[in-house]
Amino acid sequence: MQKTFVPKNPGVNRKWFLVDAKGKALGRLAVNIANTLRGKDRPTFDPAIDQGDFVIVINAEKVLLTGRKLEQKDYQRYSGYRGGLKHFTAATMLERHPDRVILEAVWGMLPKNKIARKMMTRIKVYRGEEHPHAAQAPIPAAY
């Protein structure tokens, strides 16, 4: 009789991947990052077990938005107070907070549950080339 294989949580054995966002389309980049965070690239993938790796994204301000998304895409924030809803275009967000553009795109591609909230703690996004994770010896990602 065969037994069902249940993968274990990798814990300290998680890998670190370095992604350069320079000249890459936001949606395609976010899909690949979300798959790495979930662990979908592993042969033992299980949606109920968090097996994903860490992802470091550099050059966030140089990510591409195709078409007319810079003018038409809208981001919203709500303070919780009456009249506290604020709207920003993608061009404004890229100028002020390019890391949030990538984080929101990745968050939209993850399931909305406790595991996904834990996965979002493993993505590190930086505006320029510099990042403080050299000690982890990140592997350059193939996407």
Protein model, in words:
- This protein has a 4-stranded parallel β-sheet with strand order 5-2-1-6, covered by helices on one side. A two-stranded antiparallel ribbon has the order 3-4.
- It is globular and about 60 Å long.
- Helix 1 crosses helix 4 (98-107) and helix 3 packs across helix 4 (98-107).
- The protein has helices at residues 26-38, 69-72, 90-96, 98-107, 114-119; strands at residues 16-20, 54-58, 74-78, 85-89, 123-125, 139-140.
- The chain has 5 helices and 6 strands.
- By secondary structure, it is α/β, with parallel strands linked by helices.
- The protein has a domain at 14-65 and 98-140: Ribosomal Protein L13p, Chain: A.
